[in-house]
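Technical annex, item 7. During the second reporting period the consortium partners agreed on a shared format for inverse folding records so that results from different sites could be compared directly. Each record opens with the tokenized structure and is followed by the designed sequence. A conforming record, contributed by the partner at site C, is shown below for reference.
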């Protein structure tokens, strides 16, 4: 059997416990050894479950270690890594959690996991300097309306249907999770000075930042706000948080 076919057969059997060991994979006695091959299968499962536990520690704590491992095992059986880098594994695990049923607790758990995934993505995002208030102040009043903002590569925006950010925050430093009212929360995840920060956005803050991420001019993003006076605080807040990579001046009218 060609080497490529051997590798493909090995991988297929490794990922499917119902398959017998590949015929080309033999033990010391010259015959397929299911018990030895099961060790490889178990190592794969343990490694993938461990990667999910490391990526979603708060979700694991809330759900309980045994229940989380059972769900992680089901996910690992259905979703194999597409990259040899395990830090990239499990990004769609929150959707898998929510798909388990219309359960409010699972929906909150899924949103907590979405926040944790954004935290991991922000942590591993590329480095780039962040714009400061001096960059913002350098814009002339005439150039301000047509200026655009490039968000920092580490910035992540989330609009969550549950108070997942408050739940996540309550679990830091070993504290017990709280159970706040079921209002949704909009969240900004950033990485100023190499430390990941999670901020609950004020009303309309997500919409404003989302428009900027979609390459809207500052005047266009401001027009989406119900109260035009909120424009300044929202923009300054993003800059102070370290969510802005650069401010691109627009042409004066």
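Designed sequence (site C submission):
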């Amino acid at each position: 059997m060609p080497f490529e076919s051997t590798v493909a057969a090995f991988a297929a059997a490794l990922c499917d416990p119902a398959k017998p060991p590949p015929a080309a994979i033999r033990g010391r006695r010259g015959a397929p050894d299911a018990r030895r091959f099961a060790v490889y299968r178990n190592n794969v499962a343990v490694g993938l479950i461990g990667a999910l536990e490391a990526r979603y520690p708060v979700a694991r704590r809330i759900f309980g270690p045994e229940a989380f491992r059972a769900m992680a095992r089901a996910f690992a059986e259905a979703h194999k890594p597409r990259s040899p880098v395990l830090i990239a594994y499990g990004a769609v695990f929150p959707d898998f959690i929510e798909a388990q049923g219309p359960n409010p607790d699972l929906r909150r758990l899924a949103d907590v996991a979405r926040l944790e995934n954004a935290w991991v993505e922000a942590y591993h995002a590329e480095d780039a300097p962040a714009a400061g208030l001096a960059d913002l102040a350098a814009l002339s009043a005439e150039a301000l309306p047509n200026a655009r903002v490039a968000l920092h590569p580490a910035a992540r925006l989330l609009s969550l249907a549950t108070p997942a950010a408050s739940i996540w925050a309550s679990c830091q430093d070993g504290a017990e999770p709280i159970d706040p009212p079921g209002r949704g929360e909009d969240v900004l995840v950033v990485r100023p000075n190499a430390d990941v920060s999670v901020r609950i956005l004020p009303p309309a803050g997500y919409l404003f930042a989302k428009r900027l991420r979609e390459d809207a001019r500052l005047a266009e993003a401001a027009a989406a706000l119900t109260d035009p006076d909120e424009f300044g605080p929202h923009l300054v807040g993003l800059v102070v948080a370290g969510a802005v990579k650069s401010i691109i001046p627009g042409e004066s009218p």
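The chain has a mean pLDDT of 89. The chain has two domains: 1-124, 128-253. All partners now use this format for quarterly exchanges.
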